[in-house]
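Lecture notes, part 5. Sequence design as translation. It can be helpful to think of inverse folding as translation between two languages: the language of shapes and the language of residues. The source text, in structure tokens, appears below.
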């Protein structure tokens, strides 16, 4: 089979001159989300949510999950082989091809060793601290400010008695760590003004966990990992969705979780860092 070259025109992307949370449409949307009729807030976070910390796009993520071998006479894919695949196939297709080599090494696609090897490859890339000179534009971008703003919004909504659902397709736990750390600081600050203040609670869920989000208690933030979670330390908590097989196998449960989230009444919905 001869691969077909992808001749789609390239698109040059530019960052908005006005920060996202200061744009008029964002301010209006946040005002609507805080109305008294809204009992819960859903924040759907795509890859753009933490790319200002990881620096990884789709292609870069695949390259880290399935690194090349250096031996030119090896039967395993080299850097040149992977570059060839990227020129002719989409990222999930490239991941599907490369995943077969990992699956063969561990005796099957669904073996724990397959999942653990991918997680081991991803952790250094997801949590590597990028070194940039102070004041550089890239340095300001890599500050992770979007994740910090999302965390503050989630905590504020929960402290006002709303239940909050943060659903993400990201593997990293950067947003989760940001939220838990800020909850402690927020609680200590509120405790000084109100001795009866209670801390905001968090709950972590994977897509296959059967817990009704509609019954989430007020003042609770639930973090839902739709495509799996690869923490800084420890094993991944569920399957990591990278390949075409992963998307096919997990489609039903992911659609079910999203349908549950979107069908809840009196719910505000905010999408950040995603192209829908």
């Amino acid at each position: 089979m001869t691969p077909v070259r992808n001749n789609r025109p390239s698109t040059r992307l530019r960052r908005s001159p006005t920060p996202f949370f200061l744009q008029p449409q964002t301010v209006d949307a946040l005002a609507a989300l805080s109305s008294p009729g809204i009992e819960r807030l859903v924040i759907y976070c795509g890859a753009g949510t933490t790319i200002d910390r990881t620096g990884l796009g789709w292609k870069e993520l695949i390259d880290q999950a399935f690194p090349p071998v250096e031996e030119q006479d090896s039967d395993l894919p080299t850097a040149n082989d992977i570059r060839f695949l990227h020129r002719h196939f989409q990222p999930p297709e490239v991941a599907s091809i490369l995943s077969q080599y990992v699956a063969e090494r561990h005796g099957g696609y669904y073996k724990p060793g397959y999942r653990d090897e991918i997680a081991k490859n991803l952790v250094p890339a997801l949590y590597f601290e990028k070194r940039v000179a102070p004041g550089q534009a890239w340095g300001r971008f890599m500050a992770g400010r979007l994740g910090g703003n999302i965390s503050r919004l989630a905590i504020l909504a929960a402290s006002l008695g709303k239940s909050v659902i943060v659903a993400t397709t990201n593997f990293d736990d950067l947003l989760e760590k940001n939220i838990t750390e800020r909850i402690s600081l927020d609680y200590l600050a509120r405790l000084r003004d109100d001795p009866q203040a209670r801390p905001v609670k968090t709950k972590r869920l994977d897509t296959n966990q059967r817990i009704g989000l509609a019954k989430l208690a007020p003042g609770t933030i639930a973090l839902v990992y739709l495509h799996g979670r690869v923490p800084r330390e420890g094993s991944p908590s569920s399957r990591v969705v990278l390949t075409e097989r992963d998307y096919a196998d997990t489609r039903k449960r992911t659609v079910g979780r999203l349908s549950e989230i979107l069908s809840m009444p009196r719910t505000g919905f905010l999408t950040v860092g995603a192209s829908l």
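The translated text above is only one of many valid answers, since several sequences can fold into similar shapes. Residues 1-11, 135-141 have pLDDT under 50 and may be disordered.
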